[in-house]
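Appendix B. Raw example, untouched.
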Amino acid sequence: MVRIVTDSTSDIPEDLAKELDIQIVPLRVIFGEEVLLDRIDISSDAFFERLKSSPTLPTTSQPPPADFLKVFEEAIREGDEVVCIVISSDLSGTYESAIRAKETLGDVPITVIDSRITSMGLGLAVEEAARMAKAGATRQEIAQRIEKLLPKISVLFVVDTLEYLQKGGRIGGAQALVGTLLRIKPLLTLRGGRVDLLERVRTRRKAIDRMIEIAAQRAQAAGCPHRVGVLHAQAPNEAEYIAQQARERLDCEHLLLSQIGPVLGTHVGPGTVGIAMMPMLPEEG
């Protein structure tokens, strides 16, 4: 049996993670001296409520290697193999923690993959890996397919303000917009493992509509069905609108809707909405 492991920035809905036996290692969100496990010690709703009244912006931290080691040791002890898929190494030290845990165990059947993405883009890849594991695929087959799919996953998002990305040090290529007109609503993407500016748009609604338009264009160009994830940070109505548009305009094999967790919420802030798309390429026989 192959166990699928990921981290809490994958934004996988809790019920889906349970259904597919996905093991999630939490990152940390830190308010002053208080360290909280992402989605375990604090929920998304509780986090964003606390963020409103916090005098300073919280910080985040990757899981220590010991957290991955515990999960890996349990799998190996029970005779299982592991495919571990985590947030981009350019956005977090989580990949390094997982690698160190694997190295501690020596020559073991564990594959650790740097996804180069995060949020529901990562979540969609992890879901595919878990479905393959349930169907009896080998560790090598799962890793090969996921490595093929990851570069083809699109993650597009609109933030309400660049303040959180800038203060959290994750602003990447969007740095060029800092100090420009407040009315600018940047349409952002993940490119090369980092946050990057895709387009400048004048209003929030236009940015969201443009995001959907680009997603539809990419889906059409791919010429195959997609799995889609819609993500939001306390913007459920806009998320429902994006989901409705995705169902109508994209060839959706299925769609997941999820709220962004505390760790990613620290860096993008409330009001963020986005869409992730993964083409369902035919499996090679």
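End of appendix B.
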